[in-house]
Amino acid sequence: MEKVTYGGETLRRWKVGKSTFLALPEKGARLMNWNVTLGDGSVRDVIYWPEDADLAEIAHVRGGNPILFPFNARTFDRGDIHFWRDPEGVRRPMPMHGLARQGNFKTIQADDNGFTALYLADDEAREVYPYEYEFTVKYRFEELRVICELSLQNLGDKPIPWSAGHHFYFT
Asked: From CA 13, how far away is CA 127, in angstroms rounded?
């Protein structure tokens, strides 16, 4: 793994055999690009990343692998989009695809084969999703595949509604 500068951020790049993976674990735990070097030396993107992407607005970038948590789609409460109702009946706002794709993460493990990042809930996240939890994203990189594992650990005493997901932008 090596660090590279791009768009004012420090990214991490892994080379595993013919595959190269580029990620920004601290912003949305985002895998940005995966490409493969072919036998003739040409490079083919497997996961797309737009060259003009604005990393300050990473939630709106259509590329890489956005992590969707705590809900992986649009939420509705009584017909109103961007709201949900918790098990106690409290109506709460929720951005489309949840909080993680634009959230901050802390890299808790990184090596030559990938990384694990822990979601850092801010005040907004605690208000709209008031649970005690640890949400982690783990990537494992291999020569011709990527493994992405999403994990939620409930640290509280009440059940947590959730449906995490991701959205690979395959070319």
From this structure: 34
Q: With contact defined as beta carbons under 8 Å apart, do 54 and 61 qualify?
A: yes
Q: What is the chain's Cα-based Rg?
A: 17
CB of 34 closer than 8 Å to CB of 48: no
Looking at the DSSP bridge assignments, the partners of residue 119 are 105
Q: Please say whether the beta carbons of 150 and 69 come within 8 A.
A: yes
Phi and psi torsions of 161, nearest 5°: -80, 135
CA–CA–CA angle 160, 168, 68 (5° rounding): 20
| Rounded distance between C-alpha atoms, residue 101 and residue 130, angstroms | 18
Average pLDDT over residues 124-153: 96
Tell me if residue 96 falls in helix, strand or coil: coil
**Residue-wise pLDDT tens digits, 30-44:** 999 999 999 999 999
Indicate the helix (H) or strand (E) that contains 124. helix 123-128
pTM of this structure: 0.93
Contacts 24+ apart (CB under 8 A), 152-161: 152/69, 156/131, 156/132, 158/87, 158/131, 159/87, 160/70, 160/131, 160/133, 161/70, 161/86, 161/87
Distance from C-alpha of 85 to C-alpha of 76, rounded to nearest angstrom:
8
DSSP 163: B
